[in-house]
Amino acid sequence: KRNRAITARRQHLKSVMLQIAATELEKEESRRESEKQNYLSEHCPPLHIPGSMSEVQVPGGQPPTHSPTQELCKQLHAKIDAAEEEKYDMEVKVQKSSKELEDMNQKLFDLRGKFKRPPLRRVRMSADAMLKALLGSKHKVCMDLRANLKQVKKEDTEKERDLRDVGDWRKNIEEKSGMEGRKKMFESES
What we know:
One of its GO terms (cellular component) is troponin complex. It holds the Pfam family Troponin. Belongs to the troponin I family. InterPro entries: Troponin, Troponin_I, Troponin_sf. The protein is an all-alpha fold. It is built from six helices and no strands. The chain is elongated, with a radius of gyration of 50 Å. The relative contact order is 0.02.
């Protein structure tokens, strides 16, 4: 019974949240539409185009030399020309900067190519020789660490002697294999 109440509550909350979200989406959509209308009204004023040449009134009764439509077209062409010039200038700047970038990359590649890194080899040097090479005449400390070590002689233990005396393990296996080997084993134990 409790689980049903919890799931019913969840479903109710979910539906309420969906309703709120739907209203918020509608508000957002209407706000965007109003912003779009405001932007268009600011940047694109409505055009007033007369329907024919007879509607154009010129003082003095003479025929008009240019209609408002032609004037509008001239203005639009002038704006298009300005935009095209700006576009061309931008393209030239981009081409110039990309060419400079390619040149710099080529110079960088050439510089890397001239100075090849040699493969490093291991050099066996004592600590004294290394310090002498690095410090030169200032080097006075002796770094011969092996000279200060004590010599320790290892004593042979019985186990090691037995292993040494056994020799090759294969010979042992061959001797113990078969009935004769087992017989020798029993004889040696008793």
